[in-house]
Specification:
By secondary structure, the protein is mainly beta. It is built from six helices and 32 strands.
Length: 520
């Protein structure tokens, strides 16, 4: 995809100075649109001779027209849009053109705009004196790009270049990192490496764009005038990986300014302990995000901060919480309860990014996991606990899940846990089929499928703890990972025992009564 836009720098006349000469026009070749960006005059105090902008013009209807003198009419009718004037407020006016008209102005070097206030009460013209073409073809320049954050005042941007070939050694070529802060685009220049550079690092000695695979940024090397922008970005990045970020390369070629712009979606942490090589499973269930890690990472710390971000085609969701490191690395995973907007993420295309932060004494460790998030097919479940068995009732997600056979003819585990630490106290290996085409399925588990040698003791212990609010169960397979908290303590056996005891007392009493009666 290649976007071609151009910028018109306006040289406004001094008839009225409601808008600045910095106003400009951008074009979009995909939509055949021109956008006129009208900027308010930068110094309102200078407008003393004519106070109309502030007192007389606000609220008036304005017709804005773009004119291209060299175009032969009626090939291009003057595009017109209307807006209501507001004092000291920027305006962005979108002009929709036909493909023919749009293509006819791409090579134009002269144009102007005209503003007509309240049907000819007042006219204002701004001349467009220069046009620069901008090619936005970042999607053709990199196959992948990610920002690797170290948490120590520096980060690396790792790229896999494609077919672009900007002149990286040109004196007027510069590389910037840009980000959005409260709706405002801010950027700072990325310096070239001067000494001790890696073979694939952006430096004075490496001029081939396709060989540059790393842009290194250190706080100490940022231009002094841009240090505050770097600091603000670094602070935002340390608190959340959702900062909207771009890599931009500017260069001049044949007096035409070109930009290569690429969004940086993945902002991951450096991984000195190779924790990110561990296997992790992330699943989107009905009202929670569940994930599980198969192996622990050798770090000594008490707590860990977990941030999870889910991306889909048109939406993203993020949340975070702090857990004890012992619980997190227990292999049982954890869950995030989610809000109502989370339902928009239930797409097969959703990806995840999990960032972990923890301290070992004074050293801060971070590492990031990325990958594809799976859709969970268990809508809800309930575990009925008996003295001698357990019965699991599963409500399936219908729709897309009805064609999936993840639990069919394959083994899945049901792990039960109790107590504050949620330690697993028992595990059942279940081979029974769960058909997602059926809304409800019930699986009963007895000691013959229990993994271990203390089944009866475990069942009794779990039975006693069902109502403590801390116990639960996990449904786990290669395709499903679900935390269950709905537990029912079935009293049939205990009630039967109690009833039998009462019945026995009655029988004894009757027998005693009969003996006494006989004697009498």
């Amino acid at each position: 995809m290649q976007l071609l836009s151009f910028i018109f720098s306006a040289d406004s006349q001094t008839f009225i100075e409601c808008f600045s000469s910095t106003s400009y026009v951008t074009g979009n070749t995909q939509l055949f649109q021109l956008t006129l960006h009208l900027q308010p005059f930068p110094d309102i105090a200078m407008i003393t001779s004519n106070n109309m902008c502030k007192t007389q013009l606000p609220g008036l209807l304005v017709e804005a027209t773009l004119k291209f003198p060299r175009i032969t009419f009626p090939v291009l009718n003057d595009p017109v849009v209307s807006f209501t004037y507001v004092f000291n407020q920027p305006q962005q006016l979108i002009f929709q053109l036909s493909e023919l008209n749009y293509n006819s102005i791409i090579n134009e070097q002269h144009a102007m705009y005209e503003l007509v206030f309240d049907k000819r009460v007042l006219n204002y013209e701004g001349a467009i004196s220069s046009i620069s073409h901008t090619k936005l073809n970042g999607t053709n320049c990199y196959s992948s790009i990610q920002l690797q954050y170290t948490g120590t005042d520096r980060f690396d941007i790792l790229v896999e270049p494609l077919n672009c070939n900007p002149p990286m050694t040109h004196a007027q070529t510069s590389v910037y990192l840009a980000y959005i802060d409260s709706g405002v685009l801010k950027q700072f220049q990325l310096p070239k490496c001067q000494s001790g550079c890696l073979a694939d690092e952006y430096s004075s000695s490496l001029s081939d764009f396709q060989l540059i695979k790393r842009y290194t940024v250190d706080r100490s090397e940022v231009l002094p005038a841009e240090t505050s922008i770097f600091n603000a970005y670094f602070a935002s990045l340390s608190s959340s990986r959702l900062v909207q970020t771009q890599l931009i390369i500017y260069y001049l070629q044949n007096a035409i300014q070109t930009q290569i712009i690429q969004d940086i979606t993945w902002k991951v942490s450096a991984d000195p302990l190779s924790c990110s090589s561990q296997t992790i499973m992330v699943q989107m269930n009905a009202n929670e995000i569940a994930f599980q890690m198969e192996q622990k990472c050798a770090v000594q710390a008490k707590n860990i901060q977990v941030e999870i971000v889910l991306f889909s085609v048109s939406y993203n969701y993020n949340t975070s919480k702090t857990l004890s490191l012992e619980l997190f690395w227990s292999g049982e995973g954890t869950t995030f309860e989610v809000g109502g907007t989370y339902s928009k993420l239930r797409e097969e295309t959703a990806q995840y990014m999990i960032n972990l932060k923890y301290k070992n004494e004074t050293v801060l460790y971070e590492h990031t996991f990325t990958g594809q998030a799976a859709r969970g097919c268990i809508k809800s479940s309930r575990l009925h606990s008996y003295i001698d068995k357990m019965c699991l009732q599963i409500q399936s997600e219908l729709g897309q899940c009805s064609t999936r056979v993840h639990l069919k003819e394959s083994q899945f585990d049901v792990m039960i846990h109790t107590g504050d630490n949620q330690d697993v106290v028992g595990e059942f290996h279940v081979a029974q089929e769960v058909n997602y085409k059926n809304e409800y399925t019930e699986v009963c588990m007895t000691c013959d499928i229990f993994a271990g040698d203390k089944c009866k003791e475990t069942l009794k212990s779990f039975y006693k703890n069902v109502q403590d609010g801390k116990s639960g169960y996990i449904i786990d397979s290669d395709y499903e990972f679900y935390y269950g908290t709905q537990l029912v303590k079935e009293g049939f056996n205990s009630q039967l025992s109690a009833s039998f005891g009462v019945f026995a007392v009655v029988i004894v009493a009757v027998a005693v009564f009969l003996v006494i009666t006989v004697k009498m």
